[in-house]
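In the current project phase, the collection of sequences with tokenised folds has grown. A representative record is quoted in full directly below:
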Amino acid sequence: MTFSSSTQRSGMRHLNRMMSWVLIAYCLSTFAARADLASDYRDKIRPLFKKHCYDCHGKEKKKGDIDLERIADFDQVKAEEELWQNIFEKVQAYEMPPKGKYELGFEGWQKAMAWLRELPKPKNPDCDQIASDRNANFYRGYVMSRRLNRAEYANTVRDLFGLVIPLADLLPADGGGGEGFDTTGSALFTSALHIENYLAATDRILETVLPDNGSRLSKERLAARVAIVGKSLPSKRESRLHAAKILDQWIPKLFRRPIQENEVERYLGLFDRAWQRGDGYVSSVRLMFKSLLLSPHFVFLVEPEPEERGVQPLGSIQLASRLSYFLWSSAPDAQLMVAATSGQLNDPNIYREQVHRLLADPKSKALGERFAAQWLEIERLDEVSPDRTQYPEFDNSLKHSMEQEVIAFVNHIFGNNRSLLELIDSDYTFVNNRLAVLYGLPAGQGEELQLVKLEGKQRGGVTGFAAVHTLTSFPFRTSPVLRGRWMLETLLGDKIPPPPPNVPALESSKKDAKPVSIRAQLELHRQQADCAACHNKMDPLGFGMEHYDVLGRWRETEQGLAIDASGTLPSGQTFRGPEGLKLVLMARKDDIIKQVARKLTGYAYGRELNHFDNCVIDRAMTALKNNHYQSSVLVEEIALSFPFRHRFYPKKDAEQ
């Protein structure tokens, strides 16, 4: 069948008219919907919020730095999409307003939720972007070429020389920054004290690996010395040539890059100076080596700036170091450096293979030692001192076992590509004799941690760790508040404001008084409106862990009173004990895994996350859901992400 040209033109005109009417109808419907949202905000929602929210989130009191009273019309609502998305999530979870005086009630909740659901959602940024002075207001920049933190420095020395040299007492501890980790460049400043400490650390390293006399050394120290100067010393005539060969071998290892032009000659100058004053061969090499260990190219993770400015991909050499310090907290090995120097690391498939190889290597235990210990706050166990009278079992050995259980558990998940959901609930843990006795498990495990299968739901997952129970207790008693807050902030990523001033602490029962449970005492806090909002969220979760005493032992009573480990969430949902608590947490598994993703991303990037990174987190969550939450999927998504493999270089005139 054929149509005339006039018929075709008529059909096209008809189609164009139809499309125009569809477009007009769409625009009118959109306008009407926005008009309804605007009028509903003015007539229904703002009065509702005035009654239930302004007392805590108004001009006079701005809890959480939120002032809803200032938002007078819908145009202001549209300008703050992320704020309203946060409000939507809080109201939907029955977390805000809190129960009591300001509670919305069912009809008010329905009215608020119907309006909040229709609000425009925050736009997802382009995943192939990072913050710069062109796309971020008040761009602060990020410190990227940073010094090694204390753990990274010690690990690098260990892997270079093949032995553990105690250096922790010489180097000051590094504070956390950004997302709470000591990998944050802006927190890794260098002071005069650091320089003095690096001098002392370098002297200790060289005293250990390069003493004048090679006799009476341990096997490990002798191997380190031989690796530098060889089994026998060269003749005087060949001494300078051998020193040059040492530099050829060690500069790429120490500086984590190929040798630069004239670099060998510069460091040979130090060898010549010592040699000419008669220091001897080993002493001359030691002075030369000292200058290498004190060089910024060793102490810092250096990322040279290219001629072209703006957002640029990292060079393969720099990417190799960024990857190895992410997964190993140590320097790249020979295989990774070969891939980097040959350019093979720029191949996405080879890069992905290297990511999985590093993750499967035993050195990836650094994820447990550095990432997990900081994320789960286990490092703070050093600040905890349970009362020795009530808990005489607690000593440095038990504390160390508690820490190592957490590290071994997390390493098992990442090292064996297990599901991240095992952080919430698992049928195994790692114990030695001390922990087995504490947990009521069969003894005979020895001093080293062993994987053991668990029966029942008393243990398993991070909420079953003794380290967590001790960390979230007071010296004399447990604390549902501290435990609930730890779960909300550390596992779920909620931010809990500090308590209001003049709130009295819970009192310990007097010797002759009738025992009062902690639950009963906490009821007093929830009677105060300022306290109720947070305590209604924290306390129920903490009550679910009340069967664990200060050290994490299981108990059925406290002060002669039966333990009540039930909890009622703001939504009205009830649960009981660790088993019920795990069901509650598993129902929010995506919130917990998203928190893991955020934290590991911040740890890897070495900076505070921004809204450009949300796309990376969302993409990782999609991949995790599609792959049974396997841990390697998260690591791969972070390592392959655009911000991990790129850096923003500001224009030179902007730096002046």
Observations:
- Confidence is low (pLDDT under 50) at residues 21-33, 508-512.
- Residues 131 and 315 are 19 Å apart (CA to CA).
- The beta strands are 146-147, 300-301, 310-313, 428-431, 450-453, 557-558, 561-562, 566-568, 574-576, 646-649.
